[in-house]
Amino acid sequence: MTPLVTIIMGSTSDLPVMKKAADFLNLMHIPFEMLALSAHRTPEEVADFARNAHTRGVKVVIAGAGMAAALPGVIAAITPLPVIGVPLSATLMGNDALLSIAQMPPGIPVATTGIDGAMNAAVLACRILALSDSELAARYDAWRGELGQKIVKANAELSAVAYDYKTN
Asked: Is the CB of residue 36 less than 8 Å from the CB of residue 47?
């Protein structure tokens, strides 16, 4: 099975957040791979990955990074693929990573989620892939429909919560 998405993190300490992306891709039946690569500690491996991922069939890269958060930008500078950056809350509540990923120079875009937004990164990757895969689009549409049902259920549960002055 050829991975369509690569999830990259600087180290396995990022796995608790990045696992949310893997869980969603798995739910949508999207083949993916997970790698630990560091822009600072393994720059040659990052460059090799970024240069060659598209030749292996990868279509989207999700890169999580905290602190200096160079990983998504370095990959985006080299690869022709769309890169989705996930700022991690490793330091400064993730604000340093968010600004580092979101403030890319013109011509080197990185789509950026909210801090620790790995699941949204996977949802965006799914939406990109669904543009050319009608079966995936149908799975995504069904999942999205379930989101609305959760709110309907939540409202039903809230209506059962009693307060003296609650009117609904």
From this structure: no
Q: How many CB atoms lie within 10 A of CB 116?
A: 23
Question: Which strands, in side-by-side order, build the sheet including 32-36?
Answer: 32-36, 5-9, 60-65, 83-87, 111-112
pLDDT at 90 over 90: no
* Half-sphere exposure (Cβ direction) of 153: Cα atoms closer than 13 Å: 6
Rounded-to-integer distance, Cα 47 and Cα 34, Å: 16
Q: Which residues pair with 33 in a beta bridge?
A: 6
Confidence of residue 68 (pLDDT cuts 50, 70, 90): confident
> What is the H or E stretch that residue 141 is in?
helix 134-159
67 in Cβ contact with 90 (< 8 Å): yes
Q: Tokens 């990109």 label which residue?
A: 128
Say how far apart CA 61 and CA 82 lie, in whole Å. Answer: 6
CB 149 within 8 A of CB 118: no
